[in-house]
Amino acid sequence: MTLTTQNIFEPFTFTSGLTLKNRVLMAPMTTSSSDPNGDVTEDELTYYKRRAESGLGAVITACAHVEPLGVGFSDPLGADSDERIGSLTRLAASIQEGGAKAILQLYHAGRMSNEELLKGEQPVAPSAVPAPRPNAAIPREMTEEEIEATIAAFGEATRRAIEAGFDGIEIHGANTYLIQQFFSPHSNVRTDKWGGDVTARMAFPLAVIRSIQEAVAEHADKPFVVGYRISPEEREEPGITMDDTLEFLNAIADQGIDYIHASVGRFFGGSIREEDNRSRVEMIQQHIGNRVPVIGVGGLQTLKQVKEALEITPLVSLGHALIMDPDWLAKVKQSRDEEIFQAIHLSKKEQLDIPENLWNMVTNAPGWFRVEE
Question: What angle do CA 344, 349, 355 make, to 5 degrees?
Fold first, then answer.
């Protein structure tokens, strides 16, 4: 059945009991705009609150590192210490005051970091295999003790999110960061219990899920969502295949996760590994959607695209669209969707409430459509 605009605004309730007021979320996007110690800045609070006020069902924050060695960006958001709880409390409150549910994304960069970001420390990873990109650092293979400590760190970061008042967390198991590195045959060549065949390579991410769920069971006194973001394929050879991911999704579903968030460049796009034009998001929905709600994402910008996506997945998240126009959903609700900005309007900088570092990224990076007026 084709969804009408009004159907976008139907509530959705997760297994945990948390209810969103509609089907549209803000996707997690790096801002590189926090204080050097990992605390959220006033500019970030304004940025998130402004977008929450447009009527979104939930806002998923930029990824927050769970350990100091997990930093993967400059000026990153932190969840690695109890000293960050005050910052996280302000972040959750700013989103909730805007009327949306607040979900904190948790991650560890693993080999996607470098010594400069880590203040002279060598990045860590499942194995001492560098990322397939220019000038990639050679990581240090994690010890058994470090692996267990990192698993525990995800649980501790979840506790902090609960104490800070968030409505949930999203496990960042995508975009080539540490959790995905453990699942990938390219970055994980271990021969102990943390590596091996496709089933063995699930051990670390599943342990992270359990650590987080134990923290929720112990500390949450209200519905608290636990989601999982996944990249379905890797370009590398060997690398994660769609068959690997479908098998992995079965194991994740067995853990009682609240949602799967597909991380792809284009919602309707095909494989990045092979000649297969089937939408990866649609394949995930067909495979696991009857067990776990799927959030679809990837280049959704117009109302038409969002309605078409919601014919496939029950929820969608918007990324670039909400940077370009923080009032995207409000304009849709007011039947003003023809007024939605389809580009970064350089003359409207002050109206968009984008932190300076993020503004510099989106106005200088390739792939963004910019107009002067």
Answer: 95
- Rounded CA separation 348/372 (Å): 9
DSSP annotation string for 318-338: ESHHHHH-TTHHHHHHTT-GG
Which residue's entry shows tokens 């039947």? 335
What is the model's pTM?
0.97
The two three-digit tokens of residue 150, written as one number: 């990192």
pLDDT in tens, 69-128: 999 999 999 999 999 999 999 999 999 999 999 999 999 999 999 999 999 999 999 999
Backbone angles phi, psi at 327, to 5 degrees: -100, 20
d(CA 158, CA 163): 9
Instruction: Let me know: does 257 contact 209? Beta carbons within 8 Å.
Output: yes
For tokens 């209200």, name the residue.
222
Using DSSP, state whether 209 is helix, strand or coil.
helix
CA distance between the termini of the chain: 39
Rounded CA-CA distance 331/337 in Å is: 5
- Cite the active site residues: 177
Q: Which residues of 173-193 are buried (b: 16+ CB within 10 A; e: fewer)?
A: bbbbbbbbbbbbbbbbebeee
d(CA 164, CA 2): 39
Nearest to 38 by CA among 69, 81, 94: 81
Q: HSE of 64 in the Cβ direction (CA atoms, 13 Å)?
A: 33
DSSP state letters, 300-317 = --SHHHHHHHTTTSSEEE
Q: Is the dihedral of CA 348, 352, 354, 358 positive or negative?
A: negative
